[in-house]
Amino acid sequence: MIYGFFSLLWIFLSDTVLQMLVSDIQILSFLQTIKGFGFVVISTLLIFGLVSYYAKRMLAAQHHLRALIDTLPDLVWLKDEKGVYLSCNRKFESLFGASESEIVGKTDYDFVDAELADFFRKHDLIAMHADRSSVNEEQLTFADDGHTEILETIKTPMKDETGKLIGILGIGRDITRRKQRETEIRVLTQAVEQSPVAVVLADPSRRVTFVNRAFERISGYPSEEVVGRAFELVDLELNEAELVAEIWHSISAGEPWQGELRSRRKGGEQYWEHAYLSPVLGGSGEVSHYLALKEDISLRKRQEERLQYQAHYDPLTALPNRVLIMDRLQQLIRDARRNNEYVAVMFLDLDDFKKINDSMGHDVGDQALVQAASRLVDSVREGDSVGRLGGDEFIVLAGHFSQKESVQVVAANILESFWDTFDLGGREIMLTASIGIAIYPFDGDSLSELLKSADTAMYLSKAQGRNRYAFFTNELNQSISRRLQIEEHLRAAIDNGELRVAYQPQYEVKSRSMIGVEALLRWNSSALGQVGPDEFIPIAEQSGLIVPIGRFVMQQALSDAMQWVAQEPQFKLAVNISPVQFRDEELADFLRQELERSGFPASRLELEITEGILMRGGPMVENTLATLHEMGICLSMDDFGTGYSSLSYLRRYPVDELKIDRSFVQEMTVDEADRELVSAAISLSRGLGLRVVAEGVESKEQLEALSEMECAVVQGFLLSKPVCAKEIDALLMQREWELS
């Protein structure tokens, strides 16, 4: 337009001006020729200037566009419809590890493997055929440094002004971080949804914005009933106002709070939860949300309460156990010391309770204990405590006495509560109790002293005839002194030659001949006189003296019995082993050495052990029993039927013989239940292939009954009292027993 306008002005104006200035034809013609050359020069310069100006502008625009494309962090490339590269930016050059000049004019097959090139070409064709942009994700490794990126690729068909397809424009954006964040968010979301802990998110106005599935399951509220609505994170009715205020004070200060709260499910059921409540702060420090993490701990709380109960209460009677009753006694002593009062500690033991267990079964025995506990609770004063120490032993704590004589009223009420019969298994049974009483501070000023005094007094009440109460007295102190004297003199008894071994013969019922003896310990003290085994053996066990004493008995018995086994090869020597001896780790080695020294055959030695040894069990007991069995030593279970689990021990341990306790034998002719127990024990032994020995035979009626039951071996005063070793020689010469 500029050039045309200039040309028209030049033609019309220049000719008019020349004609006005020059009239000479020749000069006019010359000037017009000069004007033509000038027009050519000026128009040429004008055209060149215009072209140069616009060329520079276009080049600058191209440079700007190129710089813009190269500055982009995305991959940008241009291909023709055949897949030949027309252009690319610098980021794209790093993908192939080549410059643009090396890429232009080539295809993907020149830079990547055929499989990947086919993938690129496939999506190029999809975009071109669909005539719209195609978006897909590609994970590519860059050739320049080997790093990998996940790209979101957009491929757009390129057309000319006529609408003809000329190629495809591609843009690849790195979305690696975005994909990682999406993965993290997805994993976090799944973790929150799958978490067993309830998660609640609320805005500053306490409107819920999110809850997970655990919240729905625990609370019973579906998310649609909670999200978008105001929801108290703490139940205001079930929790104390001070606690709620403390929680919101902590949260308002920007600090989290955690602890145990009561909550309520949708159906109204209350439960315990452990809650973590915290404000969620925004970038500028303002509260953007409130976060609540809640765990249902109802089961744990119930277990804690059950464990707490089990730790302090007897499971059978629901009375306080030893732990709790001792704590209460300690508190009573503190109160009494402060108020100058008295406290009574009463030990109570049910009389002949063992017979109920043995004759009627432990289930019935448990019923008796429950009924006894109920009567005790009803008979004491309000504020007194009744506890169970174990078995049939109970304890009563009575405090706040100004006169110790007032304790008798409480004790009398307890005994009176036992006057009515007990309904046990459909039978009316009389059950009495013996009570021992110790008074604080007269009988002790510590727990251990009071308990010991009450226990001692309780045994005194039993010795006085049972079904009564007894106070701790000076006479009981004298009894304790007697125990100390026995222990003192017992230590020197072996060295002084005061101990001797007596033997009680054992007879075979069928042949009426003596087939063995039981070794029994006797002590004639130079200072104390004749001391019975029932008195000194428990003291020996408690003091540990039973181990050297037991070794003395074993050595003496093996030495004496060698002459008897020589006369009668089937002769048996029975020796009692106490639980304390059995815990001696050197027991098996000692027996092995003594058997070798004496020459006595191990198969003819019989060790009588109590059920208490087997009840303790444990690896040491099992190993010792196994070792003795391997040595060929026979094992006899003494006092059979007086424990709790005899049958299980017979199945578990290598027992060879059962000794029926004398208490059953002595009562079998007057008590049908005892007779049936003895008969059952004999049948059981015969069925298990065990030898059975009945001890305590003192009458012909008992002997005849045992013979009818086919009891193999018997012993007792009817046949022979324990005698010295010399008298055993004479008894062996007899062909059969001579009844006393």
Automatic annotation (TrEMBL):
GGDEF domain span: 341-474
Lineage: superkingdom: Bacteria
PROSITE patterns on file: EAL, GGDEF, PAC, PAS
UniProt cross-references to Pfam families, sorted A to Z: EAL, GGDEF, PAS_4, PAS_9
PAC domain span: 134-187, 257-309
Domain EAL, residue spans: 483-736
Span of domain PAS: 61-115, 184-236
Transmembrane segments: 6-25, 37-55
UniProt-listed InterPro entries: Biofilm_reg_signaling (IPR052155), EAL_dom (IPR001633), EAL_sf (IPR035919), GGDEF_dom (IPR000160), Nucleotide_cyclase (IPR029787), PAC (IPR001610), PAS (IPR000014), PAS-assoc_C (IPR000700)
PANTHER family on file: BIOFILM ARCHITECTURE MAINTENANCE PROTEIN MBAA, DIGUANYLATE CYCLASE DGCP
Protein name (record): GGDEF domain-containing protein
Organism: Marinobacterium zhoushanense
